[in-house]
Amino acid sequence: MTSEVVLMNRQAVAMAADSAVTISGDRYLKTYQSVDKLFPLVENQPVGVMIYNNAEIMSTPWETVISLYREQARSRPLDTVAAYAEDFMEFISGNPDLFPADHQDTEFFKVVAVVFTVLAEEFDHQVRKFAESHKGGVRDHTSSIFEFVVGQLHTDYQRCPDDSPRGDLPCFPRGMAEQVRRRYGNEIEQLMQSLIGSLKQEYPGLSVSEGTNAKLREIAVFAVIKDAFFEHYTGVVFAGFGAKEKFPSMRSYLASSVILGILKRKRDRQADIGADTGPVFQPFAQDRMIRTFLTGMDQYLRMFIYSETLKLSMGLVSDIVGRTPNLSDAQKNAIFRDYSQNNLGHALNEFFRSVDNYQYAVHTRPILRAINSLPRKELGETAASLIKLNSFQQKVMHSVETVGGPIDVAVITRNGGLEWSREKPEL
């Protein structure tokens, strides 16, 4: 894991990243603190790029891919940071020398294998959960549990957490799903049989219906085309000045693998500074302490307070309604239900809106006002200090420090270009 941040005002951009990487395996966990995650994108151009979450794409280090793009771009200026970002993504997609067709075939196999592994782990979890709650007797229910788990993943690929439809990624042309089915139908069947065979060895009573098999085939296709990144992916952040940009801008993407000559990707976040717009304060990856600093309250504490306030409020309403004389149980239930669904919800929303307004006025706005006027040197120092907050929190609270090591900082201005510095490592 990692911690990164982008700060922007009208004068400059500061990008900061830690240098820790965590490698894990079966009974193995190791953290190194010497990894580069922040690079100049194009030589002699005021644009930087950061990566997080995965240091490689298709077994190739991102640093190598970035250096190859830098050689190909040859100081070529583009009008906007958005244009640099798209040009970089197209460089990866349209480069068969970088990722040949057979390499892409292997990567499809890996992507679906990872998704099926996640499915198998969730199935194991649900089986254990069922056995604990029913005191055994799980053998007769493994098939229905597997059907449930497959159905849930099938739904997750089609519906977002808020239940809105999950669309196909716009980076793919129409008909991509059918192309994947035609090209990789045999591989999908092979992966399905491997998954089901291994599960049947552990759960002999497992049987899989044709309907569940059909959903597994669709999941393999969804793993490529849907706007979901359940497999390993990398966050790629671009920031700086395009040739025709008076003020800085930022674009970030999620990127996974090249399949059938197209990089699976989506634009994640974007920000543009204008003459009348405020600064940009954008953390990436592990950002808990950074957001706490900005808002004045830990996000998990806020959720806990909301939950406890809701329980307290409902308890008070229930107690008051229950003590009201001359009301039947049906009338009391009707009053409680109506108040809970309408008045109570409105009151809680107003309460937390007031809290949010206070947080913004007392904590967030003064910080943003300061960032808006910081000179470039102080902007870079502020970005580095924010990464240190996350690192310090992990140092005192966790046994594994997934954020840490020397901090890389790039300060970018239109006239001065990209100035890169690295904090000295602790001895």
Name a few traits of the molecule:
427 residues, alpha+beta, 5-stranded antiparallel sheet, 10 helices, globular
Count of helical stretches: 10
> How are helices and strands ordered from N to C?
EEEEEEEEHHHHHHEEEEHHHHEE
Radius of gyration: 26 Å
Give the class from helix and strand content and strand pairing: alpha+beta
Overall geometric form:
globular
Overview of this protein structure:
The protein has 427 residues and is an alpha+beta fold. It has helices at 62-73, 81-93, 101-134, 142-156, 176-202, 210-225, 288-295, 299-323, 329-373, 376-397, and strands at 3-8, 12-17, 21-25, 28-32, 38-40, 47-52, 56-57, 60-61, 234-240, 249-259, 262-272, 280-285, 408-413, 417-422. The strands form four sheets. A five-stranded antiparallel β-sheet has the order 12-1-2-13-14, covered by helices on one side. Strands 5-6-9-10-11 form a five-stranded antiparallel β-sheet. A two-stranded antiparallel sheet has the order 3-4. The radius of gyration is 26 Å and the shape is globular. The two termini are 23 Å apart. The mean pLDDT is 90.
List the helices and strands and how they pair.
Blueprint: E1 3-8, E2 12-17, E3 21-25, E4 28-32, E5 38-40, E6 47-52, E7 56-57, E8 60-61, H1 62-73, H2 81-93, H3 101-134, H4 142-156, H5 176-202, H6 210-225, E9 234-240, E10 249-259, E11 262-272, E12 280-285, H7 288-295, H8 299-323, H9 329-373, H10 376-397, E13 408-413, E14 417-422
